[in-house]
Design goal:
The complex is a heterodimer of chains A (358) and B (309). Chain A has 358 residues and is mainly α. Chain A has 14 helices and 4 strands. Chain B has 11 helices and 2 strands; from the N terminus they run H-H-H-H-E-E-H-H-H-H-H-H-H. In chain B, helix 1 runs parallel beside helix 5 and helix 1 crosses helix 10. The chains are: A mainly alpha (358), B mainly alpha (309).
């Protein structure tokens, strides 16, 4: 009744091709942006920023990057954590070794370094595919885990690879308090998400999808597999690298290689698959799910235990967290293998017909 | 020369242990096309069950003979692995038939979390030890050929022997029994196997059980070597390069791959490690596998991948 496109005529190609062709969607998006930029900073507590919003924003960015590669180009990667690490440590090196390197410059250069590494470690995708490729990307993960731990140059001779960075600022505007950090990440995320959305609607995005659906057929109709695959690796790694740099600089501010271990790679892949492969919006859903769920379980379980008169030890809570997390993921994959994004679009279809289902 | 041989033999034996875990991967992938990331968690679960049952059994039964305790614990742990396999098939795989590889992969990761949580929840999360009476002291052989001889770890030797026996038993099972033939048929073609009346669901339970038993054996051997603790689950990560090197669909590939990776790791760590700061074992294995993949994208013994438009 409320949500329908009747009477919304398109009179130009630009109107036909816009991202949100329905007026209600555009208003909803605007409302969301206003809430994110104005509402949340006014209403949230410091804990919420630190524990939920900032990790959510940064991991969403990384999830978009992984989704570009896995969801749009069909190349499974288990090495996303390594590219986050490359982004973070490259940005760190740029900012301490070059005097007066601005924060944005360091972040983008970190992203570019990750992109270069993405091309190097993506090269096997030209020969191997599927699960074999996933294993090949694990090589990147373990190599960089080792490199940042053992090669002292990368970490400026810091013991055990732990580095720290402070006094962040963008054009004289300090990024110190949680609200400032939140707004900084949000702005970057908004710009990058829009760019990703447009990228997937452009010629190169269609090339990626053709490769994903069937690479031999795509090659036959004249798509260059090498360019398509390597560009997907480069763009994806760039996003993941920038997210890694943000994770190190803004969220953690001092970190060691363990922050970007293989678990992080799995986590990012979880986000993409639970959120929905081949959907930018799905990346946000997936990131929200994975970031909030452990915190929710951590808070809920002791409370539930008290409710039934049991005091649950911290060890038991962490085991229960593991179990429930695993069970929920399996449950979710069974109920909706195409992710939350599919649920969302089904919901929208239903809403268009509501309240008359025919 | 003696030192080189010693490293080589150590590598071969370590490689046998990797193959043991890798076989679990291959069995499940062959029969159901699922890349089972939960194999490491299954190893941990089985080892925990074994360690704790062998501790508890003397208390329950009042018989204090370690042999009795170990054999009862082995049977109990085997039954647990059977239950786990059955539950996984019943609750997870049956609902995910015909899904994409990535979805199945993630589902097994979910199972891995679940098993790690349940295993540590039931059996505790300390470091336990499994004592099945493996001799610990090293022996020297070939003392008349080289000065000082070659040091061989008896424990590793027995472990390698057990691994070889297990592989032999599995090969017999696959080649000579009716169930084994059914398993091979399912591995070749699901639909064709189903159309001639092979029950897919039961086959999957059997495969997961067999994988569970190999996980139990691997868990006992690794557990008595390193102690049973959470890090045992990461053994799977060490065995992955073995699987890709040997080919995802080949049991002999898992053995040969294991030997190559084992030797490669040890030689690289000993002869290359000191120049670059050590600890290169883990990524060297992956790089080695990657180099092989460049020449044979389906692994050494994997089935050739043919593309049709």
């Amino acid at each position: 009744m409320i949500y329908r496109e009747n009477g919304q005529f398109k009179t130009s190609y630009a109107a036909d091709q816009q991202i949100f062709p329905i007026v209600q969607d555009r208003w909803a998006m605007l409302l969301l942006l206003v809430v994110a930029f104005v509402g949340v900073p006014l209403l949230s507590s410091e804990y919420l920023f630190r524990a939920i919003f900032i990790p959510f924003l940064i991991l969403s960015l990384a999830a978009i990057g992984v989704n570009l590669l896995v969801g749009y180009c069909g190349q499974i990667t288990l090495g996303a954590g390594a590219f986050m690490a490359v982004g973070a440590y490259a940005a760190y090196n740029f900012s301490i070794r070059i005097d007066g390197m601005p924060l944005l410059g360091a972040l983008l250069l970190g992203g570019l370094s990750a992109a270069a590494m993405g091309i190097v470690f993506g090269a096997p995708s030209l020969r191997v595919r599927g699960l074999y490729l996933a294993m090949a990307t694990l090589a990147a993960q373990f190599f960089w885990d080792w490199a940042f731990l053992r090669i002292k140059w990368f970490t400026n001779d810091a013991p055990s690879g732990s580095v720290s960075i402070s006094h962040l600022q963008v054009m004289g505007w300090p990024i110190e308090s949680p609200v400032e950090k939140y707004l900084f990440c949000l702005t970057l995320l908004a710009v990058f998400a829009l760019a990703a959305k447009n990228l997937t609607r452009s010629s190169i995005g269609r090339q990626w999808m053709a490769i994903r659906d069937m690479d031999v057929a795509a090659e036959v109709i004249g798509i260059r597999p090498m360019f398509a695959k390597l560009s997907a690796f480069a763009v994806s790694s760039f996003y993941v690298g920038v997210a890694g740099a943000l994770w190190g600089f803004v969220h953690l501010s001092s970190w060691e290689p363990a922050a970007f271990s293989v678990d992080r790679s799995f986590q990012l892949l979880f986000m993409v698959i639970i959120g929905g492969m081949g959907s930018i919006m799905g990346s946000f859903f997936g990131a929200a799910f994975i970031v909030v769920l452990p915190i929710f379980l951590n808070q809920m379980l002791p409370w539930l235990g008290e409710l039934v008169g049991l005091s649950i030890s911290t060890a038991a809570v962490s085991h229960a967290e593991f179990m429930i997390f695993g069970a929920l993921i399996v449950f979710f994959l069974i109920v909706e293998p195409h992710g939350i994004a599919r649920l969302w679009s089904t919901g929208k279809e239903k809403l268009r017909l509501w309240p008359f289902p025919h | 020369m003696a030192f080189f041989l010693e490293t080589l033999i150590g590598g071969l034996m370590a490689g046998m242990l990797y193959s043991l875990v890798a076989i679990g991967f291959v069995l499940i992938f062959k029969a159901s096309g699922v890349f089972n990331f939960a194999q490491g968690a299954m190893v941990l679960f089985a080892a925990l069950a074994m360690a704790r049952f062998s501790e508890w059994v003397p208390g329950w039964t009042g018989v204090s003979s370690p042999l009795f305790a170990n054999s009862v614990a082995f049977v109990l742990a085997g039954i647990m692995m059977f239950v786990v396999a059955w539950l996984i098939e019943r609750l997870v795989l049956r609902h995910l038939v015909n899904q994409e590889g990535a979805t199945l992969l993630m589902a097994t990761l979910g199972i891995a979390y679940l098993l790690e949580g349940i295993g540590q929840g039931i059996f505790g999360n300390d470091i336990y030890k499994i004592d099945v009476g493996m001799p610990k002291e090293p022996v020297f052989v070939l003392q008349n050929v080289f000065e000082g001889g070659i040091l061989i770890n008896k424990e590793d030797f027995i472990a390698a022997l057990i691994a070889a026996l297990l592989v032999g038993a599995l090969t017999l099972f696959f080649q000579k029994t009716a169930t084994g033939r059914a398993l091979r048929a399912v591995a070749d073609d699901h639909q064709a196997a189903q159309s001639i009346g092979i029950p897919l669901n039961r086959i999957w339970v059997i495969v997961w059980c067999v994988a569970g038993v190999t996980a139990l054996v691997a868990g006992i051997i690794w557990g008595s070597k390193l102690g049973v603790q959470f890090s045992l689950a990461t053994v799977a990560m060490r065995a992955l390069p073995v699987v890709i090197l040997g080919g995802l669909t080949s049991v002999p590939g898992a053995i040969v791959g294991g030997l190559i990776i084992g030797v490669g790791e040890k030689l690289s760590e000993v002869f290359l490690g000191p120049y670059v700061g050590g600890g290169i074992e883990i990524w060297f294995a992956y790089m080695l596998a990657l180099v092989f993949l460049m020449f044979r994208p389906q692994g050494l013994f994997g089935e050739k991948i043919i593309d049709r438009v």
